[in-house]
Amino acid sequence: MKTRKPSRRVLPWVVGILLLAGGGFGWWRAHGADAAGGAASRAASAPGGGRRFGGINPVQPVSVQAARRQDIRVNVDAIGSIAASNTATVRAQVSGVLQRLNFEEGQQVQAGQWLAQIDPRPFQAALAQAEGTLARDKAQLDGARVDLARYRDLMAKDALPKQQLDSQVALVAQLEGTVRADQGSADSARLQLSWTRVTAPIAGRVGLKQIDLGNMAQASDANGIVRITQTRPIAMTFAVPASNVPIIAARLHADEPIPVEAWDRGGKRRLALGRVASVDNAIDPATDTIKVKAVFPNADDALFPNQAVSVVLQRETLAGVLAVPQAAVLRGAQGFYVYVVNADSSVSTRVVTPGAVDGGWMAVEGALQPGEKVVVDGTDRLREGAKVEVIATDPAQRAGAAAAPASSADSGHSRRLDRLPPAEAEAVKAMSPDARRAWFKAHRDQRDADSPR
After folding, report:
1. pLDDT surpasses 70 at 49
2. How far apart are CA 361 and CA 69, in angstroms?
3. Do 214 and 100 belong together in one domain?
4. Of 16, 66, 103, 231, which has the fewest CB atoms closer than 10 Å, so is most exposed?
5. Beta carbons within 8 Å of 305's beta carbon, 6+ residues apart
6. Residue 396: pLDDT band by 50, 70, 90 thresholds?
């Protein structure tokens, strides 16, 4: 089989195509590369060098805050348990039918406040009987005393045997003892009657009732009628490391109040503010801690007995120390350090010694001056000498954050206003946004109606 040779008429076309491709490549080498290089040069010479967020030595956006001197509280964190200052179970002191409950569950009551009433009639009868016996015996005593006085007059005249006088003296003494016993019985009956009116032994919050009306209230009932817990003020106990004992003891001896804050278990909401009342008399050797008792006014009843809370004890206050935001302090091979923004928008590292933290600010020591700006956000790509651009810490305050993008309809309206007579344009601008849109819609509909089909 013979191989078919290419037609000679195809060769001129192939040669022409190759020549055009070579000429195009040469033109690009002469003009396109130079244009691309010029564009790159212009981009490099523009502000930021076209390398704001990339390239060699990029300019990093960072947020800063100035170091300052302020008071820093040294706090001790712990877990505390709330306990009532006093607790009392209100029991009936005499047995009887419960006629009345004079309180609402959960109510705050005062000491001596009337809480319940037990049927008083049996005790009123017993009191009346005791008082009757007392009156009878008093009358007998009064008669015996009159006879004794008469016998003494007769004895003085030798008209009465001495034995009869002695017997009358003994009778008077006997009746005096009987009257005293009757008086005690009457007083006891009166006391029993007063106990039918049940009152609060202490001030505090009453709990849930333990007996219903109409039931027999027994003096021996362990649950009683109701339970009262004194929650104003309320106490809290917690343990702190024993190393805090010298400072706490010194402040207590100086009658200096030591603030204590009670927070919810999540540490997000402060429940109450109180002070340290006392410390335990011994350190627990097993945990090397000591128990502390704090007292809270609890006027808003935010704390309840047996409640577990997070505790922040303000051990002391460091006055006028140098402080920076806690987020600015980093840790590296050289220890703790911060990035400081220099006047030429470059950053440099300063080694610092961290201290106590209070409200997001940390006390530091080192080669740092008040007023110097430290980087708090954007430190992940920074290096010594890097160039930075300072932006606002709050994203809502950054440039352009508050600018709302203009809609296409608003842009079209603005262009149409430019074509209106000045007086009519001002009238349209004075309209509300809804009225302005309606005016433009009507104007557009009229225009469409007038246009030829």
Report:
1. no
2. 10
3. yes
4. 16
5. 82, 83, 84, 87, 229, 231, 234
6. low
Which residues neighbour 436 within 8 Å (Cβ) at sequence distance 6 or greater?
A: 413, 428, 429
Could you tell me how far CA 49 lies from the centroid of its own chain? 50
| 165 within a domain of the structure (yes/no) | yes
64 is in which domain, residue-wise?
60-69+320-397
Q: What pLDDT is attached to residue 412?
A: 54
Cα separation, 28 vs 21, in Å, equals 11
pLDDT score of 17 more than 80: no
Q: Which residues pair with 313 in a beta bridge?
A: 76, 260
Q: 70 with 357: CB under 8 angstroms?
A: no
Establish if 113 belongs to a structural domain.
Answer: yes
Total-model pTM: 0.60
What pLDDT does 1 receive?
A: 43
Total Cβ atoms within 10 A of residue 191: 13
In this structure, are 179 and 292 located in the same domain?
no
How far is the C-alpha of 45 from the C-alpha of 415, rounded, in Å?
36
Q: How many domains does the chain have?
A: 4
Q: Whole-angstrom Cα distance, residue 289 to residue 280?
A: 10
Question: Which residue's structure tokens are 């008469």?
Answer: 150
Asked if residue 326 and residue 211 are part of one domain, the reply reads no
Q: Is the pLDDT of residue 377 over 80?
A: yes
Q: How confident is the model at residue 57 (pLDDT cuts 50, 70, 90)?
A: low
The answer to whether 185 and 130 have CB atoms below 8 angstroms apart is yes
The pLDDT tens digits for 235-261 are 999 999 999 999 999 999 999 999 999
